User: Fold these one by one.
Assistant:
Number 1:
Amino acid sequence: RFDGRSAGGCVHSNTHVDVVEAGDGWTVDPFAGIVKDGRVYGRGACDMKGGLAASIIAAEAFLEVFPDFPGAIEISGTVDEESGGFGGVAHLARLGYFSKPRVDHVIIPEPLNKDRICLGHRGVWWAEIETKGEIAHGSMPFLGDNAVRHMGAVLRAFEDELFPALDRKMTRMPVVPEGAKRSTMNINSIHGGQTEDFRPGLPSPNVPDSCRMTIDRRFLLEEDLDTVKGEVTGILDRLKRERTKFDYE
């Protein structure tokens, strides 16, 4: 935080220093920060250590030109934005770091388009769905109840009903890129049964008694969170009525 010589408004620049996994296909070490032809190559150089660096440089330049400015400048760099932000930006928000009387304006220098200032963002609902089953030996699946098959029914309902419905929803706002004008949902992960690292070789032959899916639902200004949740829980509740032994949390 940089405090001015007198009272005034506060501008807060919020960034994050964590990154998503590197993935495959790199031609350089993704965590080496290689400088080549005036550019930095590495995981997180754009999203969003570049924004953090720009915030620091902008603050230094501003202080050099306006050393007697009124008010304050703040810069934050949180560490869990890519995994929910609960211990980072959400914690700062609970402490009042992004609201009056402490802060008057917040700038988030996330990468999108260097010539565009965004005034908002789609809403987000992250959730985990767990289907339940009954464990049994894999050679006698009729003695158990397969939670993965139950999750398969959820996936089919999403593909047949929810995804087409989301694709028909479009905001009236001037959103970029074009695809972000629609409601979306991503299936971030899915896992059922024994983990493959439980022991060397393949997982043991069990009927899975649990299967978990995490979803990332991005919704529009015209939608509300209760309706967004209801679209998913409505499908799950219907499957519970229609499908034998189907249960979820």
Number 2:
Amino acid sequence: DGDVEEATCDILVGCDGKRSVVRELAGIAFNGSHYPDTYMMGDFEDTTPFGEDAMITLHQDGLVECFPLAKGRRRWVVKTAQYVDAPTEQELKEIVAHRTGFDLRQAQCTMTSSFGVQHYIAETFAKGRVVLAGDAAHVVSPIGGQGMNLGWLDGEALAKALHAFLSTQNERHLQDYSKRQRSIARQAGKRAEWNMRLGRSFKNRWVKRWILYLFVRTPIQRVLAQLFTMQKLGAWRV
């Protein structure tokens, strides 16, 4: 309505998303770019035998993954050669059938959409008494499912940092929060990028077979699985 209100506070936390006004007014740079990868996804009645498990197929034409949702539904995500502006239920069903063998023709579809992938990170998560969290601080690829999880991790760490700051008035606690959470966001971004590369089409099928062999037939399979599923963020440097 055009009214302007002014408020004074000890600290300002920007949780206002990728296009954060708080971040912009604080003069904090937001660096990153778009990946060339594009995906199509849809929610279907779950007719698979997977139950609560997720499934990933690394097909020569590109990745397919699916995971359970509430109310007996399952989300399917497929890698596409280019962005599909208005994906149809039939297109998604055909790709899933071709790459995985699963027949979704009788499964009810409730949603289809397409998305591109981008990665951005603020140059700092704390500038003076202005602090960033969530998408205002970092945007990572949804492959790996860490966007919301990173936000929760920010919230948990920021609660501790704010308590320490309000008790001591020492801004070092805010900088410590920034350093640690930015490191975690960078790790998640790198792992998500690695996951995307694994899901791209392979011209040399032997490369993919070698990678899969490492995943399932070698002693390091557990470590690779933890990296792929974003476990131990902050505990490792990768």
Number 3:
Amino acid sequence: MQYLIWDFDGTLGYRDGGMWSGTLREILRDERPEIDAPIEVLREYVGRGYPWHMPEAPHCHLDTAEKWWEALMPVLARALAGVGVPEAEAAVLARQFPARYTELSRWRLFSDTLPALSALSAVGWRHVLLTNHVPELPRIVAHLGLDAHLSAVFNSAQTGYEKPHPRAFHNVLDFIGPAEAVWMIGDNPKADVAGAEAAGIPAILVRTMGVDVRYRCEELAGVAEIIASAPASR
């Protein structure tokens, strides 16, 4: 068997309207339109405090969606308060975030995602998703029709391990078992590429330029070319 391990956000799909800071702006637009917080300012607030900002610390105790989101409420409320929402109101508005962020109509696949997965499947590759994401990811994946292409989904919100934690990758390797070849594909040089390589998995950086890595391509069509020409993996 040959396996490709894929990241999701920024690699296979994305949220239309923005991710964390974009969703906070949506809340402000609807609830506090007089506060025109620049996206850069909101990014400063959401650039710390999430589970993937502390990948060295497993969070297996956040084993339900309710616990997972509850742990993030102070981070989201802090961001809203930081741009001028009174603290008590910020705590209330933060609770809108999960439903808004996971609204299915917001999620998209890149135009080259399904063609690339189908082409690689046709030549014998199987696909596994390994991503740092929210508990509702399986619902998002199913809505996008991506689940039909995947052998398994490993989501940090469910496993308790964020990339680049070694356990995140070894969970997938344990599932795969003996394989002819395994590759990781993602858009994050640290979480996807460095994390995979530390676990003994060759990795391809996609959609991210200007970073010094061994394997890189801008479009997913380039993945097939790289794995066909590279030395045998794993």
